[in-house]
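task queued by scheduler; priority normal; single chain, no ligands, no partner chains; default sampling; output format set to structure tokens
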Amino acid sequence: VAATCVLCSPVHARNIHDCVTMSEVLPFLNPAGAPVIHVQINGHDVGSFFSTFTTRTSVWDAKGFDFYRLDPVRTMSVTGTGGNYSTTIESLQIGHSVLKDMTALLVNERPPKTPDGLLLMMDLGWDILGQYHLLIDRYSQKIGIFTYDTAADCPDIGTLLKNPGPAIPLTSIDDESPQLNQMTALLDGHKVDMQINTSANRSIIQQWVARKMGISRHILKQDDEIRVGAGEVLLGHRHHFNTLQLGSHTLHNITLDVVPDAEFNILGMDVLKHFNVLINPMAGKLWLEDYVPPPGHVEEKALPWSPTHDRLSITHASEEKQSPPLPAGKP
């Protein structure tokens, strides 16, 4: 039974269903990569990524929306610092929930589209998601965004998943940020602090971290080159690692992108796709449950673009001319 269905199915008194006080359950529009959900901005149907890594919800400057530039805002993404403006969204509808006159970050780039023409023009961030619990269910390909009663007679929120193991603590990237989004992983036995980013197709390791693990530049030059797009473009290498341990869960024989000038280590959907994911941003807790694809499952290709996206450096000339938008990052 899909984990998200717990939010929808009737059950007995004072169990998990009764302790969920409000929920929106939204299907993914894409089968692979950073998940996209349907939202409405000012009455228009658009696609939205979502991530508790993104500090402020962001919109891309699409034609016909006439977003006003308000205050300048300095931002930081995995590729470095940049500048954008704040703006006001008159109406944002997520499922049946509607937010009015909300402040967002305006990214001064035209948004890309899905193959069927839907604009990918939003990244829901911590300013909204940080007030709720999040359940990403790989079996049903849905996200549940919900509030939960913390009364003593309500079950532990982690029991939404059947076998998640102990909760993984989340911390902030520094002492000043209230954003609890960083977990400590073990990469080939070495501790690495990583930012959870569900709007990133790929995971990223800073090169100085790899160097401390004994991975030299000479070793990396034997790997495939990749390009990281998140406003600026950085070059790196796709490197093989033996194990990545996340709490009580261990992945074997994985590839991560090692990038010299990356500002953060990123835990993206190439890793998180192996789990059902439950996040309590307010308490700083993460639960992971192993996802086992059904027999005969063939993984589809991810959308080529996400707010933080990596790809192999061998590209067509037409792709080289494209300038990817700047993500919200960390204002």
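post-processing summary
- Residues 8-13, 314-331 have pLDDT under 50 and may be disordered.
- The longest helix spans residues 207-212.
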